[in-house]
Specification:
- This protein is an alpha+beta fold.
- It has one domain: Gcn5-related N-acetyltransferase (GNAT) (Aminopeptidase, 3-Layer(aba) Sandwich).
- Strand 3 and strand 4 form a beta hairpin.
- The radius of gyration is 15 Å and the shape is globular.
Length: 152
């Protein structure tokens, strides 16, 4: 049974394993090189579990101007697609949280090669925008080249 739960440190090993598996799917890097900077930690972070095993994550970073940035929307390959609906459940979790917390705009950045993810975001109400339409304090992965906005 698939459940979406609030992140707890006990989930971290499963998340790390999942991210390594996903990185192996691609020829090019999908995660930026580690730096000495303090990592960006989402304000809220959820984990998708299948019978207790980590299969996906999603987080939101709330910026000073009261907008959100979708972060860490990651899902194991075998759970992607409509059949399981996990991506939709993760996204709905963030959108509901934004609505409850008066976050009216949700931005995200993704990489060019993630065509299925881009189609998923558009299908779920996100509009593609240019980099110059992003807020000045938007924090993104330096590998991201495609950007979206969702208005709650």
């Amino acid at each position: 049974m698939i459940k979406i739960v609030i992140y707890e440190s006990v989930h971290q090993n499963g998340i790390d394993k999942m991210m390594n598996e996903i990185a192996m799917e691609f020829d090019s890097k999908i995660f930026p090189k580690p730096t000495k900077e303090t990592p960006i930690v989402p304000n809220k972070y959820w984990v998708a579990l299948d019978n207790g095993k980590v299969i996906g994550t999603v987080g939101i970073l709330v910026a000073e101007n009261n907008f959100g940035v979708l972060k860490k929307m990651i899902l194991k390959k075998e759970f992607r697609g409509k059949e399981f609906g996990v991506s939709k459940k993760l996204l709905e979790t963030v959108i509901k949280w934004c609505e409850k917390n008066s976050i009216s705009k949700l931005y995200l950045g993704t990489m060019n090669q993630f065509k299925a993810a881009q189609a998923f975001y558009e299908k779920n109400g996100f509009k593609q925008i240019s980099r110059n339409e992003l807020p000045n304090n938007f924090l993104n992965n330096p590998l991201d080249k495609v950007f979206f906005l969702y208005k709650t």
